[in-house]
Specification:
This protein is an alpha+beta fold. It has 5 helices and 4 strands; from the N terminus they run αβααββααβ. It is globular and about 60 Å long.
């Protein structure tokens, strides 16, 4: 009986830790095949490069952008395949917003302050997150 209890405790501990690593591993994958990206509000070449793990200068070059700081909402950018760019890997994980989620609820799940989630994702209105939005959850 004692062995079963310790086994259950170990299994519970593993299940709590797995979500922390799953988000980090999926965010590191490089664009293995060329793809297209439609620019959304607030995105930059740097943020798009991080999303696909591609050097932002490679994206600018592939799209023949004269000024890499000037991209606009709705613009379609070609994302070249290639070797991954060595981004510094932050501590934390990613979460995709579901229907009914709030920053407070997500904060309770990860045991992180909703204000730190908002700050990490540059969210200025704590009451406005979108379904499908990908949020970075910082470490405690």
């Amino acid at each position: 009986m004692r062995a079963q209890v310790s086994l259950l405790k170990a299994l519970f501990a593993v299940l709590l830790v797995i979500p922390l690593f799953v988000g980090t591993v999926t965010s590191v994958a490089a664009a293995s095949v060329p793809t297209w990206h439609t620019v959304a509000r607030g995105e930059t070449l740097f943020s798009i490069g991080r999303l696909y793990n591609v050097n932002p200068w490679a994206i600018a070059s592939a799209n023949k952008l004269a000024n890499p700081n000037r991209i606009y909402v709705g613009q379609r950018l070609y994302i070249p395949a290639g070797s991954p760019y060595p981004w510094p890997q932050p501590c934390g994980s990613y979460y995709t917003v579901l229907r009914g989620d709030t920053l407070c609820r997500i904060g309770r799940i990860y045991r992180v302050s909703p204000w730190s989630i908002a700050a990490a994702n540059r969210i200025y209105n704590m009451n406005y997150i979108r379904i499908g939005q990908r949020l970075f959850i910082p470490c405690r």
